[in-house]
């Protein structure tokens, strides 16, 4: 009976959506004065973007989001030692992870203002506008989350403010502090039609900025467009990357047919035989097939994003390649794409490992980590 | 209580069917949505054929992630992912006239984890009448199968490496299997697409001498049916997964070292079996 009701519900929704299409103007009145921000979709990239209808991209929204992303007063505190913003951990030079050499976060493992370590190491903030299966290592920030307030990129703002392992603050204090800084109310007015600062609009603005963080200018991108050539070692590595009898990387990490270099899907890649992380995908879904399962991160700019894996166990690309070559271990939930597990891995020779690494480094996009549009603005609101 | 990440898309097939039918009924509303807002009158109801893709293991509906199936080689197996393309669905009339489904460029993607892909509505232009048989292409033919055709997931993730022939997997069936008495199940990637011919039969991508189109056409037996003006007919296209393993070329998972994308012999044998994996039935009123 319930499924019938659900079925009719879907049908009703679809019909209503169809009829709604007849309306002349479905724009959010609050955003009609803002300037649309157009995302240029790179060649071969997906054409479908994950931009929620209630938070369209605007030039003003992105500008505001960039300020907030870099403003330590997002923490709701003014003291020099108590400032924390997204950029405290999400460092552009490291493709927006904190980086293994970061003096503030030894080993590349970030912690919050109170010193509590984050449950996982960081995922790079690259091309998130194309993520449609959920954010975070376990994908829990998704429409499937039973908690309505933890479903979208927009929700990361309040979550970071209150998380004990991040800002460890409270949203009221952060909102009030931002409201009181000269310049911010006007920026909110331009972006969202109201000079009243809300946590919701803070989250919307930051999400807009994060959606602009697009990387598509690596050597491999230029190779695909016929503008650059791979060296012989890189070409050999490319073949290894794309073949089952080679490194067999492409099924999870994409390739020429998926230039995001991730499917954004979730896998147990054979790191362990027993699992105790309460924040793996099983911790979200409760499905035993998801034990030890995490998202496949993009391989773009991996040169800048060490250490690797959800627990940062590998400090270098060489260690990662060694693992996939001969360190894979079986467990009941191992991904069926890890079919080389019967031989502990893909069994690459030293020269093949070197070739594969050389290819992976062609995914380096230095312009992304130096793009001034993604950098800290020269001056934040209220700064002298 | 934990909630499945796929809960939102794991609606029952019945729900999806109802939604598809109701959406079909709602199409006139879409078509009548004019700039002036005036509804056009006098349009007749479209004749509609809905194909439902039913994945079976012999007589049992496929249940993903369940180690309960067995093939003739005495291997137990479970399927974790099942994705494939069907294209060029063609209805044949006894007077020689054929009708080819052109929705989505004549290509449909099926994903056992995405209920909405288990239905393909061929609406609005099916001519009423009696048809002798139905045929289709399993996978994509050479003309259709070119790289960068699909830029968005989930179809995008069926891409087949350029070095191996390019285009897309015809089928991606990931499973794990074990022999009786074995306590561990090992993965097998049953992936079909363009095959390669290697110089000296040594599998080295740098020695590929040519490519083989492995798509095949299926003429469905006992597929005659009739459809009248304005009628909505449901055709159930069944694929028996065990037929891929149990046909004239018995498929032993151990023989192929858990993969087959670069093993043309394995893909060829699988295709010979696969041609007999399909059947059709009509839920009501079939001829």
How would you describe what is shown here?
The complex is a heterodimer of chains A (384) and B (287). Chain A has helices at 2-20, 59-70, 86-89, 156-162, 171-179, 184-192, 199-211, 219-224, 232-241, 250-253, 281-285, 317-326, 350-361, 366-370, and strands spanning 266-267, 294-295. By secondary structure, chain A is mainly α. Chain A folds into 2 domains: 27-214, Orthogonal Bundle (Cytochrome Bc1 Complex, Chain D, domain 2), CATH 1.10.760; 219-365, Cytochrome c-like domain (Cytochrome Bc1 Complex, Chain D, domain 2), CATH 1.10.760.10. With 287 residues, chain B is mainly beta. Chain B has one domain (13-282). Chain B is 13% helix and 35% strand. Chain B has helices at 13-31, 241-246, 264-274, and strands spanning 48-57, 60-61, 69-70, 75-92, 98-100, 107-111, 119-122, 129-131, 133-138, 171-179, 186-192, 195-198, 208-212, 216-220, 225-227, 232-240, 278-282. In chain B, strands 3, 4, 5, 6, 9, 10, 11 and 14 form an 8-stranded antiparallel β-sheet that branches. In chain B, strands 1, 2, 7, 16 and 17 form a 5-stranded mixed β-sheet that branches. Chain B is globular, with a radius of gyration of 21 Å. Residues 1-17 and 19-42 of chain B have low confidence and may be disordered. Chains A and B meet through helix 1 and helix 11 of A and helix 1, strand 10 and strand 11 of B.
């Amino acid at each position: 009976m319930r499924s019938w009701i659900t079925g009719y519900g879907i049908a009703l929704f679809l019909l209503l959506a169809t009829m709604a299409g007849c309306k002349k103007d479905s724009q959010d009145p609050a955003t009609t004065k803002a300037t649309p921000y157009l995302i240029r979709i790179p060649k071969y990239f997906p054409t479908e973007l994950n931009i929620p209808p209630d938070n369209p991209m605007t030039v003003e929204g992105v500008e505001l989001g960039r300020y907030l992303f870099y403003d330590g007063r997002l923490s709701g505190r003014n003291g020099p030692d108590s400032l924390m913003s997204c950029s405290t951990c999400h460092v552009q030079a490291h493709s927006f992870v904190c980086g293994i050499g970061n003096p503030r976060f030894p080993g590349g493992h970030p912690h919050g203002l109170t010193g509590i370590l984050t449950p996982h190491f960081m995922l790079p903030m690259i091309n998130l506008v194309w993520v449609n299966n959920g954010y975070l290592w376990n994908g829990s920030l998704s429409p499937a989350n039973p908690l309505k307030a933890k479903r979208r990129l927009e929700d990361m703002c309040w979550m970071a403010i209150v998380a004990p392992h991040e800002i460890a603050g409270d949203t009221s204090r952060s909102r009030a502090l931002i409201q009181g800084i000269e310049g911010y109310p006007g920026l909110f007015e331009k972006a969202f039609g109201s000079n009243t600062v809300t946590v919701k609009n803070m989250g919307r603005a930051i999400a807009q900025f994060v959606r602009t963080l697009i990387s598509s200018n690596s050597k491999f991108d230029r190779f695909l467009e016929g503008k650059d050539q791979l060296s012989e070692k890189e070409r050999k590595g490319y073949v290894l990357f794309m073949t089952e009898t080679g490194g067999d990387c492409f099924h999870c990490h994409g390739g020429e047919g998926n230039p995001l270099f991730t499917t954004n899907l979730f896998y147990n890649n054979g790191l362990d035989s027993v699992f105790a992380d309460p924040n793996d995908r099983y911790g979200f879904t409760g499905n035993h097939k998801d034990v030890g399962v995490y998202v496949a991160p993009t391989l773009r700019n991996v040169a800048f994003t060490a250490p690797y894996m959800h627990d940062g166990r590998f400090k270098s690309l060489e260690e990662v390649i060694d693992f996939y070559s001969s360190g894979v271990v079986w467990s009941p939930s191992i991904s069926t794409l890890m079919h080389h597990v019967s031989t502990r891995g893909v069994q690459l020779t030293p020269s093949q490992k070197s070739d594969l690494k050389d290819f992976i480094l062609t995914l380096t996009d230095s312009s992304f980590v130096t793009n001034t549009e993604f950098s800290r603005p020269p001056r934040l609101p209220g700064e002298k | 209580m934990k909630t499945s990440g796929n809960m939102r898309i794991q609606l029952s097939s019945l729900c999806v069917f109802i939604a598809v039918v109701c959406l079909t009924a709602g199409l006139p509303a879409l078509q009548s949505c004019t700039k002036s807002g005036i509804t056009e009158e006098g349009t007749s109801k479209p004749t509609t054929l809905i194909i439902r893709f039913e994945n079976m293991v012999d007589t049992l509906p496929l249940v993903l992630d369940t180690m309960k199936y067995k093939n003739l080689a005495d291997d137990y197996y479970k399927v974790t992912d099942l994705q494939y393309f069907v294209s060029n669905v063609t209805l044949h009339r006894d007077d020689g006239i054929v009708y080819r489904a052109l929705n989505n460029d004549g290509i449909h993607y099926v994903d056992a984890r995405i209920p909405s892909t288990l239905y393909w509505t061929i609406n609005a232009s099916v001519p009423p009448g009696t048809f002798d048989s139905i045929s289709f292409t399993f996978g994509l033919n050479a003309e259709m199968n070119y790289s960068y055709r699909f830029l968005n997931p989930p179809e995008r993730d069926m891409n087949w490496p350029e070095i191996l022939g390019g285009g897309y997997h015809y089928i991606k069936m990931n499973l794990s299997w074990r022999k009786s008495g074995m306590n561990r199940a090992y993965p097998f990637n049953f992936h079909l697409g363009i095959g390669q011919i290697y110089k000296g039969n040594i599998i080295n991508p740098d020695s590929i001498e040519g490519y083989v189109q492995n798509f095949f056409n299926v003429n469905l037996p006992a597929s005659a049916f009739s459809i009248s003006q304005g009628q909505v007919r449901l055709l159930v296209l069944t694929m028996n997964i065990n037929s891929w393993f149990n046909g004239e070329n018995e498929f032993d998972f151990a023989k192929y070292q858990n993969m087959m994308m670069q093993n043309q012999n394995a893909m060829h044998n699988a295709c010979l079996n696969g041609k007999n994996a399909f059947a059709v039935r009509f839920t009501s009123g079939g001829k």
